[in-house]
Amino acid sequence: MSRIEYPLPFVCLDIQLLTASIWIPVLLRSLRPKRVMTAMDNVVLVLSLVCFVTFSTAESHLDYYTAAVFEHAKIRTPNDSASSIIQRNLRFYFSAANEAKSQGADVIVFPEYGIIPPGKRDELKKFLEYIPDPKESRVNPCEQNDAYSSRPILNTLSCMAKANSIFVVANMGDIQKCENDLRCPEDGVFQFNANVVFDRDGTLVLKYHKEHLNFEFGMDLAREQQDSTFETDFGTFATYNCFDIDFQRMSEVARSPGIDGIMLTAIYGNRAPLKTTVQFWEAWALGNNATLLVANLQMPGDLSMGSGIFHGENGALGYTFNPDGLSKLVVARVPKLKSPEISPESNITVIYPDYSVNWNMTTDLPAECSLKLLNQSNDISTDYRCTEENITFSFVPLKESSGHIETCHNGLCCALDYQTKGLNDQFFLGAFSGMYSHFGRYFWCEEDCVLARCDPFGDSPCATYPTKSLTVFEHVHLSGNFSSEVVYPSVLESGSKLVSRTEWRHQRSNQNETSVIFQNGHGRNLLVVGLKGRCFERDPPYQQ
């Protein structure tokens, strides 16, 4: 595929020719013939340098960069070969990159396991490629085509970046021989879940091995803490994988001086009430005051969907959350650090292998998604399912249309002041402080305060969380005495939609009281208002 050309170099070339036509004859008349070629070379060189510096400086003075995230509805049928699965998904990737560049994107982020499937160790081998270390030598698979002809993922991603002059952040599998390593598995290789980053000319600039595997028993854990940061011409960023977002390291890096944002590849499930994906993405960006670009896999029947671009206190610049089985590209302008606010000019496009279509449909979720109520989906492409966070809240029901209530759990006390136009659903105030259990295998410390639309199930008066609400709230003030280093605030309305940041704020006092305040005179059908604290210092050691 040939490199896309841009209008600026041609404008620059016209300026060179015009200037040369005026000044070269004047210069040449004053020179002897033997000096003519040297003079012409010098003129063209100077004009070229002036032009290059002019346009490079103009780019560096932009107050924003344009980012794209791709939520891919992965293609895989039972009888497909590994080669067929890889090629079919990469066709979508190339189409998404082309569309992203047509909208001016500087970077595109792809989801976790968007090219290859998760699976057992032996099954995964045919999907893995040896990824060289870009710190040891220059690696450009598109230019070194012969050496990478048997590694189609690396070759295609590199050519995709080069053809579109765009940074590419993608997820794949890395296989490394390890016979002389005492930790080497019996089959003689390490298999890593890896993110790769390619620059605008297709050069591999970073390889990152996932530091927190999530039931990925076909993969090996990173051998050491990874350097996840990389430089671009629009800032310094870090990349992580999915489950990494639940742990301290990614949060620490995001808050480090000089880091402009995190680019996350994900196959992340929706878990109510405080981890509906787009709710959590925005809350994480707000709690860390960081930019987060996250590409999630579109697999709603298997809990996973919801991608977007989130910018610190501005919240969502653009996002998608729709169980439609379509691959979608989200593009938005992102302000650079310490730059003035700008219009994000976000856009969503449906991506097909050979064409794309502007997407302007509204999200229409089913009223219920809980696996407790609906069991497994019949079609993972469109039959949306969610699950509940494994948290035993101390719940208190809302009984009046307005009022003040409190509840406490293990030293965390949550208080709620609220005003509605009448309670038309069951709402509860919940508090939780303790060790969170992620499907009984992974554990970490949380402090949570939540106001949630909630229905009974079994013996519990509040056990499932519908996606729709008929209760109109005009005012909510939710607060708690958090000890956590980082607290993630969120506000969702009916349909699991993010409420505009113009209608709510969050704040933290010196006494560790953290609060969310929502105010809208016309009211909104709120679904969840939450504060999720992460007490990292009390986390047990992570174990695969």
Automatic annotation (TrEMBL):
Record's keyword annotation contains Nucleotide-binding: no
Any one GO MF annotation of this record:
hydrolase activity
Q: Which gene encodes it?
A: Vnn3
Q: Name one Pfam family in it.
A: Vanin_C
Keywords carried by this UniProt record: Hydrolase
Instruction: Specify the protein name.
Output: Vascular non-inflammatory molecule 3
Q: Which residues form the CN hydrolase domain?
A: 65-350
Q: Which domain of life is it from?
A: Eukaryota
InterPro entries per UniProt? Biotinidase/VNN, C-N_Hydrolase, C-N_Hydrolase_sf, Vanin_C
Q: Which family does it belong to?
A: Belongs to the carbon-nitrogen hydrolase superfamily. BTD/VNN family.
